[in-house]
Amino acid sequence: MWDYTPIVKDHFLNPRNVGEITDADAVGEVGSLACGDALKLYLKLDDDKDTIIDAKFQTFGCASAIASSSALTEMVKGKTLDEALAVSNQDIADFLGGLPEEKMHCSVMGQEALEVAIFKYRGMDIPQHDSEHDHGHAYPDYEGEIVCKCFGITDTFLKKVIETNSLTTAEQVTNFTKAGGACGGCIPKIKELIAQVLGEAAAQTRVRPEKLSNMKKMQLIQEVLERDIRPLLWADGGDLELIDIDGAKVQVAFRKACAGCASSGNTARMVEAKLRDLVAEDIVVEEVSQ
Amino acid sequence: MKEIYLDNNATTKVDEAVFEEMRPYFCELYGNPSSMHFFGGQVQSKVNEARVRVAELLGASPDEIIFTACGTESDNAAIRSALEVFPDRRHIITSRVEHPAVLTQCRNLRQKGYRVTEIGVDGAGRLDIEELKAAIDTDTAIVSLMWANNETGVIFPVEEAAAIAQSKGALFHSDAVQAIGKIPINMAASTIDMLSLSGHKLHAPKGIGVLYLRRGTPFRPFLVGGHQEKSRRAGTENAAAIIALGKACQLAGQHMEAENTTVKAMRDHLQDALMTAIPHARINGGGAERLPNTTSIAFEFVEGEAILLLLSEFGICASSGSACTSGSLEPSHVLRAMGVPFTCAHGSIRFSLSRYTTEAEIATVIREMPPIIARLRQMSPFGREHLAGKA
C-alpha cells in the first residue's frame, strides 16, 4: 500500500473544490483516459482579470491525483496569475506533506494544468502533438520533439522537469512524468536528456581556474569526477573509480555497466573533455583495468 | 475496523486448524527430519504424512511431490529444469497472461538467446489454442501455461495444451497456484509433467510451495546441496510449513464442493448485483470458464486505486488491475492482452472470495460499491455524456 500522508488522505477523502465553473475565465485540461489520469482545471478571475477568486477541478485518477488537484485549487485561490505561475510541482507535493516518489507525476500534472489554463487565457499558442494516447502534454514552452510516444511527452517538457526537480536517473524521470513507464523504448533518450541538463547546469556555474597548485588540481579533479561525471554514468547504470593522478595523467577504471562496455573508449574521451573543460587543458585520461 | 477480505487470490487467511497442526514444530518438535535420532524421526514421519495429504489433493503419488519455498520457486525450477534436460531445444512457449513468476523468467531467458513465444488470448481471456499448435515444434523444450488466471480466474484448457506439447516431445508445466483448492485436479488422469502450487493461496502459511513432478519425468534440480527431497530440492525442509500445507490440502479437499457451490453462488450474486446497480461496467473474462471464487469487473471512467482506497474505508479489501496500484504506469498485462479498452482497464477491480466469505460481507460490498463508483464518476471529467441521468 502506498504510504500517503494524512494530508493526502484528507484531500482524497474530502476533496476541496470539485466541480465545474460554468463561466470560468481559464480552463486547463491535461491527461487522458488512456494514460490513467487526467485533470480539468477551472479558474475564475476577479474584475481586474488578475487575481484568481475561484478554482475548481474534475479529476480522473488515483488518490494522489485527486489530492494533488484538490491541493492545487486551494493553493491558487487568491493568487494573481503571475503568482500562480510560480507554483511548482514541488510546492504542490510540499503542501500535501510529500508524495511517494512514484506518484510525483500527479503533482506535475497539477502544475501542468495550471500552466495550460493560464497560457490559454493569455492567448498563447497551444501546440497539439499527435501521439498514440494524445496526452495533451503540450504547450508553448514545451514545444519540441516527442520523446515518450506512449504518453506523448516532449523533450522540452522533460528537460524542464529534470531541471526544476534536479532529477538524475531515468527512473526518477518516469516517476515525475510517466515518460518511459510503458514500453520503455525512450529510456536511452531520457538518459541523454538528463546528461544534457546536468551538463548545462555544470557548464553554467563553473569556470576553469587560471592556475592551480598540484594539490588543488588533484582536489578539483576528484570534485569534478564526483559532481559532474559519476552522476552521468549512474544514469546509465555505470560508474567509474579514480585510480591515480600523476601530473596531468588521470587514471580511471570503469565499473558496473561501463566495465567492458564497447563504448567505454568514448566515455573516457567524455571524461577527458570534461576535466579539460573544468580543471586544466592538458589533462589526459587513461582507462586502466583494475 | 473488521476487514471484509475479498482478496484471496493475493493471499489467504491461515486456517486455525492448519496453524494448530504446525504449532508444535517450532519450539517443541524442532528436530531436523533428516537426523538419525528419534527426535528428528518424528518430524520426518509428519513430513511424510503431509506429502501423502498433498498428493491426495492432486491425485498424485507422494514421491511426485517436491516441497519448495513458494510458487515462484516451483515455476523457476520447472522451466530451468526443462532447458537443462533438453540442451538442444532452444524454444519456450508460454502465454501473454502468465504470472510474472513465469513471464519474467521467460523474458530473461529470451535475453539469453532462447526463442520465446507468448501465446495470446481472446477478449474473454481464453487461450488461442490454434496459435499454440502453430508455434510448437521439435525445438520446443517446454510449454508453460497457467491453469487459471490470477486476475480474471479464466481457466485454460491445460490438458489439451499438454497433449499438443507432448506431440513434439516437449515438457508441459502448469502454474496451478490459483486453481489448486478451488477446482478439482487429478494428476492420475492427466499427462501434465510439472505443476506449481503455493501454500498461502489455500489457507497454509506463506513460504511453502510444491513442484509436482510426474514420475519418470527427467529433472535437474534448481537448488543443489544436500540430499533433501530425493536430491531434487536441496535445503533443510521447512518442516512446520510442510506439515501446515499437508493439513491445508486435506481441508481443501473437504471444502472443494462448497467452493464450487456456496462460494460460487456468493461470487455470482456479487457480480450480478454490481452489474445491475452500476452502469458502464463489464466483467473481464465473463464469457469464459472461470474459477468459482473470482470476479474482475471493469468500471468505466474511474481509476482503480481510488476505488480500492474508498472501499478500504469500509474495511473492504479487493485488488485492481489498474496501473497506479502496482507502481507501474500501464494497466495489467492480463487486461491489455485481452484487449480490454483503456477506458475501463484502469478501473478494473478484482474480488476473490474464500470459504470464509459470508453473505453479510457480500451484502456490504453490494451496498457500498455503487455510491463509491458514483462519487468518483462525479469527480471525473470523463463519461459525463454517457452517465447523464444514471449513477
What does this entry look like structurally?
The complex is a heterodimer of chains A (290) and B (391). Chain A is of the alpha+beta class and 290 residues long. Chain A folds into three domains: 1-124, Alpha-Beta Complex (Sufe protein. Chain: A), CATH 3.90.1010; 125-205, BFD-like [2Fe-2S]-binding domain (Arc Repressor Mutant, subunit A), CATH 1.10.10.1100; 214-287, GMP Synthetase, Chain A, domain 3 (2-Layer Sandwich), CATH 3.30.300. Helices cover 43% and strands 18% of the residues of chain A. In chain A, a hairpin with a 2-residue loop joins strand 6 (238-246) and strand 7 (249-256). The longest helix of chain A has 21 residues, at 214-234. Chain B is α/β, with parallel strands linked by helices. Chain B is 42% helix and 14% strand. In chain B, helix 5 links the parallel strand 3 and strand 4 (115-119). The two termini of chain B are 28 Å apart. At the A-B interface, strand 2, strand 3 and helix 2 of A face helix 10 and helix 11 of B.
Structure in a nutshell:
Chain A is of the alpha+beta class. Chain A has 10 helices and 8 strands. Helix content of chain A is 43%, strand content 18%.
Compile the SSE list and pairings.
The complex is a heterodimer of chains A (290) and B (391).
Chain A lengths: L5 H8 L12 E7 L4 E9 L6 E9 L2 H14 L4 H5 L3 H7 L8 H18 L24 E3 L4 E2 H10 L5 H8 L9 H19 L8 H21 L3 E9 L2 E8 L7 H15 L5 E4 L3
Helix pairs in contact in A: 1-2, 2-5, 4-5, 5-7, 6-8, 9-10
Chain B lengths: L3 E2 L10 H7 L1 H4 L10 H21 L6 E4 L2 H15 L5 E5 L4 H12 L3 E5 L9 H7 L4 E5 L13 H10 L3 E5 L18 E5 L10 E5 L14 H4 L7 H39 L3 E3 L10 E6 L4 H9 L3 E2 L1 E2 L2 H4 L6 H5 L4 H4 L2 E5 L6 H21 L4 H4 L4
Parallel strand pairs in B: 1-11, 3-4, 3-5, 5-6, 6-7
Antiparallel strand pairs in B: 2-8, 7-8, 9-10, 10-13, 12-13
Helix pairs in contact in B: 1-9, 3-9, 4-5, 9-14, 10-14
